């Protein structure tokens, strides 16, 4: 089965990562590459690491250019996917790496994004309870945000097992590629190297409602999330340090058991042996997430930490993994758990 | 008034930073520089950034070498200060950058450091309530750990004002110099660049009891701290993201007022204007800490974030600032609030 | 003697570094800060590391705003200084950190910058032969480019002593701040971290004629320069690796002697002891340049390497040092040879 | 055809990269992993990015452990390969990533390494003239040093075509993994981040004779090399900036033609389109080298620049590529030209 795939937004970081992974996917054939300001250029000038595609031309993002593919990946700025998606045939698989179809609550969408809510698509985090069933056979996938991917992998087992109080605290450090490729002075190398800084503090980050939605689904009751994203001086990676007060009577063995149950059979989440902790450097370029959890007896909190590559498992790898599920391909096809280190 | 200062541990990172600051201090005269494995070498080979001291020889760390100074700074591995300090005359000011005399609770010391407790000295964080009075005229100072400096600056105003519930969560990212200069494979540039990772998770970090001790003093009741330190790919800096549930009825104005009261007159802590957030890059090489705070209304938490240079305000700058207080010099003498950026 | 200084271009990297140094200068008083797109903003939002100036407002860059100062520093894009400078009174000291008045040859200027040549001002590299005499009492100073500062410090002693053949090779690695603060996608942190790349290869870089001009002056005959600049993943610093074939009969002792003669009494250039080599990390934030030289007997080449901080000795520090000379102040006043490390 | 491969030195950086590539090689089966101080540990604790091998145990490096494989890769400290290799059967393919068998001249070996010369094996840089013929069917391969790989790819076409004078200048910047994984204080992240520095200046680097040997072979006459290695603040990558005076009458078209001829059909060297320059970030984790060349008409020099990943094309990828040639497998099998970026 050959899957002909188009990528809209091929000149950005998510688009480049999709292409890197699709080049290694044995059933994928790369079709149209489209862009906005990059249209007309050769990909070699835009993504010089993708040597096999150097001569390919970027086309303008239009419904015509995207037609005739089995899968269309949308790697567009938030809020632009809906307009493109509605022009694409229902028989095509559309995988949206943007936020447009992630949230179930229209009021949340409007509060955080300021535009009308476009709808809700099956959520591309197969590790969540029930997610594979919702993805199987679907023709529309909403790829999770990179921070929610990291935070949910760290926390959902604790909530699914009923071990944690409903107030979670998430502090996550992201590499700069998470902010995209647009030229911004505050993302210049001179500004980010040697510095760490938070942003969107105090409940304002758009990824907060996405975390709450899926933790609540896992828990069966509402969960609040105090989320603080920080920018770290590295190109890739998210380290999410998450915690929540343990429910009375919960012990370390309960916590360990819940995570072993959640991840024992997962191909792309590795619960580390006790005493070892995740590092983003160990999942650089890999679709594998690392997770570790501990119970701090004195503070009474479950501390769960995950490391993912924000562009791979956090975006493009999760997208390809979900595509595999939707199309009935082996879920791991074309995806690697091996990082590039050091 | 000329202050003749010796530095024990002159070849390490804390020792080098002490010398950098003392070179700029108008009343300090740099006396003996001592070390262990570096004894006999010229400082120029060990600390090539300290050009004016390039020809100075490092002496072995002995009571004789340290005798005859007005101030002795100890920048030694944890647990080694007590033995040196007891050989130093009571009339000398001894400023210990190690942990030996920080903790008030002997059981805490023994649990975390595994040796007999040596005692408790006045704590070198002048911004804490009552700290200046304890430092004035003292001849013994325990310089805070770099993480506690950052966490306490972020959190103590909330506790001193009675705004926060007694369970605090601290997630802090530190530059690699915080781990010292000993050759360790896990601190090689190849390992740390491009990677973030936690360590000492789940209550085990030695800086936890130090935070609890001083938050409790500010609050007037016990406070638990869930502390997770992480290692960030940068040489210097700590970003501490701290939070605690707000007490019922606490509003954003209460929080802002508490921090303005705490820091309105402080020379070395800058409460940022609302809407701006700390960055470690803005305090690189500076003795200034940046603090910001917000109330997350949905999660019900006070989120307070601080940025300090772990070697300056977090160690050597705090040491010199405390020395100034102890000796009756102007507190800001020889210390700068200006960072080196970008 | 109080010197009232204005800085045009206060929101850029060179402007910020000028302010950092002027804040530490005992005779300087900081007057107007001007900018273009930043006009109307508070400096605290633009240069958060300059805490003492946080409340100062940036004014539009006009002759009126700059009038009434003793010194005006111009930190403007190349080609914009001339128009501003001609509006400033002849009694004011104007220190141009741009390229406008560096080149003696109008044809070179026009070939590399594409606009009419504005003139030639005394060159602000006091270490060059005859430079101090030209700077003393001047009211106009052209601050060298950062690459020429590094390359000339490495090479001019060999040419002044007649030791080197007239074909020099310069390969220099610069931190990203050398490219300025304008938002450019190729300078994003995501692009520069983890990567080194050359630019302007093959004779095209604007700093080449500046190097040739001053090496020729030192040598007394024309010198060609093959110059390749590269961008390194660090915020600051230039490491210039320079070489030239040795003239027949030149020995290692001749080379050493020439450099010792050139730098024996220089306050801001440190010829390292034999066997030790420069590092940009050792001059971070310092006005000191480190130089080392060796004769490779097998290749027959003199290899001279320098490290400078491109923003300090390479721009703003050189500007303040030259200002001191021009105004008859002690040359080292307010400038430090101490770097911030690690 | 399944190739059973052992890796001696599995806990180092070269060993880890060999395993990363062998895991992706469709005909390779990973056999024994051996080490010295790491023997007895699980690989998951040593190379956490190699998830599929996490449970494998590291054995002591002995002839017994390495026996019974089709290929043995030696990733040992320089000078230790010979003793191991002589215990391995002649029917096994031994691929030495160390220096022991690279040099043809015993005097060079003894001068630079201080031990008896062990011999000379076919050189694992298939792109060199005649290299593939020497590698085909061999049972012993000497993998080039990472710097020589970069410098030779940049320069040999100019020498093979008779375009360059016999004095070459090579200035190369390497990521820190080139220095290996041994705990050294000068390689700590705190020391290398934010700093560039040279080492082994003035003819003393061990890779110089290796460059000379192969440039001379390409040129048909002796070539001197002035080589300066520098350490750059990044984990991986080498950027080699190389130049040599052009022979009289050589024009830009001659130069371009020579490089197009050399690299037109090479799977793992990409001569970039004119006007674009190599970047190490574009070959991160890839076995592809990027090369560009220009003639500087004013300086009269051919400037050739290459970028390789020191661990991939510069070591482990070159080793696997050479193994493929030696065993008669398709040369590109299991190797990728795609980098991980940003």
Automatic annotation (TrEMBL), chains A, B, C, D:
Subcellular location(s) of the protein: Cytoplasm
Domain of life: Bacteria
Keyword entries, A-Z: Amino-acid biosynthesis, Arginine biosynthesis, Cytoplasm, NADP, Oxidoreductase
Active-site annotation: 146
Signal peptide: none
Family: Belongs to the NAGSA dehydrogenase family. Type 1 subfamily.
Entry protein name: N-acetyl-gamma-glutamyl-phosphate reductase
Organism: Streptomyces tunisiensis
